[in-house]
Structure formats: C-alpha cells, structure tokens
Amino acid sequence: MAKIKIVNLVGARPQIIKASAISRAIRSHFSGKISEIIVHTGQHYDREMSQVFFDELEISKPNYNLGVGSARHGRQTGLMITGIEEVLLTEKPDCLILYGDTNSTLAGALAGSKQHFPVVHIEAGMRSFNKKMPEELNRIMSDHASTLLFAPTNAAFKNLIAEGFRPDNSPPFSIDNPKIYFTGDIMYDNTLFFATLAEKKKAFLFEKLQIERDAFGLATIHRDLNTDDVLRLNSILSTILALAEEHKMVFVMPLHPRTNISLKNNLGELFTRLNSSKYIRIIPPVSFLEMTLLEKASRIIITDSGGVQKESHFFKKPCIVLRKETEWVELVHNGTAMLADADPSLITAAFSFYLSKGSKLDFPGFYGDGKTADFILKEILMMFDKT
Ligand code: UD1
Ligand code: UDP
Fold first, then answer.
1. Which residue of 63, 97, 363, 364 is surrounded by the most CB atoms within 10 Å?
2. Angle, vertex CA 292, rays to CA 290 and CA 293, nearest 5
3. Model's pTM, two decimal places?
4. What pLDDT is attached to residue 358?
C-alpha cells in the first residue's frame, strides 16, 4: 500500500516541541503507512529557540528551512506563504499538519487551503476572545481553512461548534465539510515521554543554578503585550523581584530573546537590579528537557505562555498567568491557575494564596491519556482510507 505523505510544518519553539510528538508517533507506530516531510519556516532561528529542540527531541533535520526569520507580521507571514506554497507544489503531500496559533500556522493554513491541500490543525478551537492578540486572529483563520480540526479541550471543541462547525459531519471530509475532534493535548504526550529523561539528564541544573527542589519559582514572559509595553514589563518584573526578596525564594527566569531585548533597551536600571539580586536567575532560553525539569522541581510558576500554563498543571504546580484572559480556561475554573494580568497586587495576592495552599490543590487530568498523537495519526489515515 502506498504511504500517505504529510508535511509537518513548524516555525516557532512550541511548534517544534509539538511536532516532535507527531514525528515520534510516526516513527514508532506508523512508519509503514506515513512518510513525513518537515518544513521549518525559520520564524525562530537562534540555536536555543530552534536547533536545540531538533537535537534533544530527536526530530529529523527539516527537509526545507525557509529561513524567513523575524519581521513585521505582514512581511513575515507573506514570506512564509510564498515559501510554503512552493514546497507544497513541489512535494504534493496528501495533507499538511499545523500546530497552534503563530504566524507560521496562519501561513501554512492559507498556503495549504488555497492550493487545495487538506489542512490538519492541531490545537484547534482555542480562543481568548481577544482579537487584539495576533494569535487569536491566527487561530480563527487557521481553523476556518482546515479540514481536520483537533481540539485539545472540551472548551475548545465547544468554541468550534459555536463558530458553526458541526460535530456530526460524515466523510468524505473537506474544507467545506470539516471534521472536528475533541482529543487530548499532544504536549501531555511529550511531558509523559520526557519527564523521567529530564531528571536523568539535567540534574546538574540544581547545582548550576544553585536551586533546591520545591523551593524556587519559575517565570517566563514573552507575549507581545507584556514585552512591548514597558510599563507592563516593569510592573511584572519589579513584582517578581519584590516577591523573591521578601520571601527569600529564588526565581529562575529563562528569558525569550524578545523579553531580553526589551528589558535591556528599555529597563536598564531594573535589569541591573534583577541581575544583582541573589534571588533572581535570569538565564537564556533553556532546552525542553531543562524546562521540563525546572517545571517539575519548581514550587510555583508565573508565566504568560500557553504551553507553560499547561505544563504547570501536568506537574501539579500552581500557576499565575500574566494575562487578563486565557485559552486554557479549565485551569482557571479549577483554581490552580489565576489570571493576574500585569497587576502587582493581583500577582502578589495569587502568590500568597498559593504558598499558603501548599499541596492542598487538586489537578484533575484534563488533557488526555498521553496518546493523542497516535489518535490524530489514526484519524488522518482514516481520512485517506489507509487504516
Ligand atoms: C511567537 C508567536 C507566539 C508564540 C511564540 C512562542 C506569532 C505572532 N507569535 O512569538 O504566538 O507564543 O512565538 O515562543 O507568531 N527573536 C530572536 N531570535 C529568535 C526568534 C525571535 O531574537 O530565534 C526575537 C526577534 O527580535 C523577534 C522577536 O523575538 O522580532 C519576536 O519573534 P516572533 O517570532 O516574531 O514572535 P514571538 O514573540 O517569538
Ligand atoms: N520552553 C522551553 N524553554 C524555555 C521556555 C519554554 O523549552 O526557555 C518550552 C515550554 O516548556 C513549552 C513551550 O516551550 O513546552 C512553550 O513555548 P512558548 O512559551 O515559547 O510559547 P507558547 O506556548 O506561549 O506559544
């Protein structure tokens, strides 16, 4: 039987991590039925934002790297569409897999759907209901250009239905007759797969960063609303510094390049104070195994990242979310994540609440059984009658 050919499209850090779950499932269970072409748009390009994940998560070298790099939204997305379209016309895949909500996702959705290649969207249906976020526009448009849509949560599945997607469509599926699924989250597949390995390979971090298990906080900040608004960035980082000093709790902060640039350019004095505090560890972005260990060993997580919010739940850590809203609403409803925006009093109150709660929080399994990638690949095969 001829194999089906898929294009696995990545560009930004979390997409490379997500794609590793699909690549691994193809290698482990579907190598006789599916062949994979990896296309990297080049949206992220620093070693620690890209190559490190290929090496560590054992993903094959991309068959194509479009090398698009950083630019304003229009130019970046346009260059990606041009490059992806050329690859699709050359490779003629059976379908194109996209992840999440970045400009790379949108470019893939537009290039694929306009050339009539079925688009498979993993992490479909996520909504913040805030169209000022570039990601919200990317998500909505990508979903509406897709043929198979895999929603990682029940809330996401319901969002799709509210936008007119029908849960009862029957095959053959197409952009005009799409199929929506409620699956788990492929990031949970990764966490289950890599958590033990992270402990084995990255234990040196405790000594290197001078941190102790269950005694430090972990913080990441990278959303444009927090990095490009200097008042917000100042407010968030000053609050973390104050909490760290008051509670004598170390905070590890792997900084996205975007945050690093803004902090150095706009908040030089604060940057110096952070670096001279014995409780703050500002470090470059870390690898996925390192991040996994830091999350697993931390006491509390403060973040504006979508992926890190969920991983805090996987590792049963309370999470303070530096946004007004989140797409992962079940975490907030469950009380194990709190929305604190960039407000010092909300961040401080959430921090005190979670420290006092200790281990009394409950973390139900919202995100599937760790086999979501297998489920998705089976459904793709079914679409092509190749099960
Ligand atoms: C992108 C996604 C965001 C996702 C994040 C994951 C969009 C609109 N945003 O945001 O949804 O959560 O990736 O990390 O697609 N830069 C470097 N080196 C790199 C990459 C970026 O220095 O390897 C710097 C550049 O100054 C660049 C800035 O970071 O202009 C922003 O990069 P960009 O890819 O545009 O957006 P992210 O903020 O990374
Ligand atoms: N991550 C990482 N190193 C870091 C910061 C994050 O490996 O220094 C991982 C994190 O564990 C998660 C993913 O990157 O799996 C989240 O990506 P990011 O926060 O960049 O984007 P988002 O999920 O918000 O789109």
1. 97
2. 65
3. 0.98
4. 75
